[in-house]
Records
---
Amino acid sequence: MSDHAIEFENVLAGYGDFMILNNLSFKAKRGAITLLLGPNGAGKSTVLKTLFGLLKVRAGRIRLDGQDITGSSAKDLLVQHGIAFVPQGRNLFGQLSVYENLELGGITLGMKTTRERIPEVLARFPRVKERMHSQAAALSGGEQKQLEVGRALLLRPKVLLIDEPSIGLSPLVVADVFKLLRQLADQGTTVLMVEQNVKSALKISDEAIALESGRRVLQKSADELLNDPNIERLFLGGAHAAAPAAAKA
Ligand SMILES: Nc1ncnc2c1ncn2[C@@H]1O[C@H](COP(=O)(O)OP(=O)(O)OP(=O)(O)O)[C@@H](O)[C@H]1O
């Protein structure tokens, strides 16, 4: 088997008639963290949504472990192929308890299996575990993000797609979330992440792919990129530009 879990081959996808991914091709290694970089609107989140079956693939193929999964529904991708998606922002049922949010996360597993697996998930997040009967909305931002990741882990995914996990979190909490992602990858989970907090994210990533206008313009090892004096420019866009792109907050 190839050491690549995810493969996009000339993928065309977008919203309505407007194509965002323009013949995008890339491969992401199994059991590694691959970071998607690029300027706003480059199509990073669209890659995750397309891979998770939320957007139609208009042309090209997507493969998981060599198997063609193009056109599969999000439910099949989750249940049969083991792909889990943690979207940007807050995605919990705030009025429900931590435990109930986990139960709902395991809805495709059945209640018995879900309840058997919840302790194994909570064991990774001691702070969340302590508050298992609190309303999810009462957790801190970081604890909520941990709960979202925990909910995805209930399914023991082969692939974890995670979009901007650091948004709204303090640096210490971000470090915890990143550490967890690193542990998951070391245990064999393939992680594909979009993250604006580029330098910190590169430190725990294996590879980075830069997109511009829905095309791959660069793929490098994270170490190499961290030491690249052009890193800011790559992150902001203009990987091929002669002059550095304008600075952005
Ligand atoms: N639901 C939608 N309907 C129509 N257009 C959309 C939708 N979601 C995103 N887009 C457009 O698709 C393009 C790519 O968006 P995407 O969110 O993939 O970019 P991104 O690289 O993740 O950017 P950012 O760093 O700003 O999150 C943008 O021009 C955006 O306006």
Note: Residues 15, 20, 38, 40-46, 194 surround adenosine-5'-triphosphate (CB under 6 Å).
---
Amino acid sequence: MLGATAAAGDTEAGEKLDAAIRSIGALDEAAMREAAARLDQLIKPPGSLGRLEELAIRLAGITGTPVAERPLRKAVVVMAGDHGVCDEGVSAFPQEVTPQMVLNFLQGGAAINVLARQTGAEVVCVDIGVKGDLAHERLLSRRVRGGTANMARGAAMTREEAIRALVAGIEVAEELAERGYGLFATGEMGIGNTTPSAALLAVWGGLEAKEVVGRGTGIDDAGLARKREAVERAIAVNRPDEADPLDVLSKLGGLEIAGLAGVIIGAASRRCPVVIDGFISTVAALAACKLAPGAEPYLIASHLSEERGHGLALRKLGLAPMLHLGMRLGEGTGAALVFPLIDAAGGVLREMATFDSAGVSKG
Ligand SMILES: O=C(O)c1ccc[n+]([C@@H]2O[C@H](COP(=O)([O-])O)[C@@H](O)[C@H]2O)c1
Ligand SMILES: Cc1cc2nc[nH]c2cc1C
């Protein structure tokens, strides 16, 4: 694990990243055994609550608490960043939509605000690299740079910038954990960000551009061809070293992708579960696990996005989504919808009667 970041140099940010990665612990096996034993005592045929039972056991292992006293406090961290590769004509929408949507997240009118309200979660919006000026009292400003460079012509960012974005994400997760949040969802906003996500997945998944490039916000056939070409060119121009996750992430990634990878590492280091949203979020999770393999058991997949490549990214992580709703919005919308299932899993363990207490005969 250390090898991945040792080459980052001994900057303060590099050391912070290494320390967070090192502090990720294994799941608590004893808590998991206790939760599993309790599930088998509850008035239901063993295993009959299916994936809800798996979820309950894993939550016990993540938090180290077999039966939680109350539901976890929830935060959707929406990281926003812009992408130089938009110059290649890879999105159906103009770049100014990124800051415009950030303002909507802060005003409460975006889809994620509605779904977060419905599911009892806080939306935390972070400017990690939006192009142009953005200021709002509720916006967390952690800007590393005002958007990436065009990866089809050179590195999207420097190694140091990628490390700073990762550390910004780690610190956001740590601050939220300090404030009592115990369950995180990854959300993002960044016009053009399905293109770097596809490039990262192509490299880490050993896949061709055509297998991982999809229509994103809804680009037409000509745009799809430009997008595939941009991914192929970005890989050819940058020649990322597959064995060095920071090299791949900095050359082909995005600031919000690195920031979310940091959120995942930070949450895992605090023993908090992280619900992964769609395509971009899943690629961020892949980045996090490349840097910190110990983060993987802290991940909960939410939904299967319509975006081509999402299923492949999930499979690479060994994750199975819970919902298939045909969504492809991002922002953390699919992840927020899984919060009630997580609360339900905890509620079953906490509130169901046992065969003994309810006087029900065992099979
Ligand atoms: O989460 C997904 O699976 C997803 C799939 C397609 C598009 N998006 C969102 O749409 C934007 C990226 O799309 P594009 O076409 O501009 O690359 C970005 O803001 C994402 O949040 C998100
Ligand atoms: C309007 C709009 C909202 C979004 N939310 C996440 N990505 C988005 C892309 C667009 C274009």
Note: Residues 1-6 have pLDDT under 50 and may be disordered.
